[in-house]
Design goal:
By secondary structure, the protein is mostly beta strands. The protein is 13% helix and 42% strand.
């Protein structure tokens, strides 16, 4: 199993996180890590991170729908009820290959969130995204809350919503980072 998981880690990429149920037949909404204009192909397999390990799930035939540029709807074989699907909520999903295989882009599009209003979901604090620091393996969002600067990892787990039209990011910033 360890060898299989290492191989899956090397031959797949994290596409996003399951954020809600869709309908009553066990389908889920996958919030993509970056916006995608168009789904180029339909995956046969998805890999869900359960207890730190990637577990393969066969994608149900004709269950993949691109809801918008930030979300896919998909179902897995054997996941047929809301109760079964609920077990996957909040879990991350990898797809085989690379971003380009599924979304047709050379790479994940560069984020252009500089200047967006940032709202911390827990505290309600508002700030401005000053810069995205592209540190390999650990990109950081530099946010100004008044005179205070906070660095937050550019991690999909912290990003609750991105509204390109209103230029607002809603983040779940760890309390420890806000108190530094």
């Amino acid at each position: 199993m360890l060898k299989l998981n290492q191989e899956l880690e090397q031959t797949s990429f994290e596409a996003g996180k399951f954020v809600k149920l869709h309908g009553v037949a066990g389908r889920l909404v996958l919030r993509l890590n970056s916006p995608a204009e168009e789904l180029a192909d339909f995956p046969e397999w998805g890999f869900v991170r359960l207890d730190g390990e990637l577990v393969p799930f066969q994608v149900a035939e004709e269950s993949v729908i691109q809801k918008d540029t930030n979300h896919l709807i998909l179902g897995f074989e054997g996941i047929n009820t809301q109760e079964q699907a609920r077990e996957l909520l909040g879990k991350y999903c990898n797809l085989p290959g690379t971003w380009k295989n599924w979304f047709g882009a050379e790479e994940i599009p560069e984020k252009s969130w500089t200047g967006f209003t940032v709202i911390d979901h827990a505290s309600g604090m508002e700030g401005i995204l000053i810069e995205i620091q592209e540190i390999p393996g650990n990109p950081l969002l530099e946010i100004a809350f008044g005179e205070k600067r906070v660095l937050v990892p550019d991690n999909p787990a912290f990003i609750l919503a991105v509204d390109e039209k209103t230029q607002r990011l809603t983040l779940q910033i760890p309390t420890d980072l806000l108190s530094l």
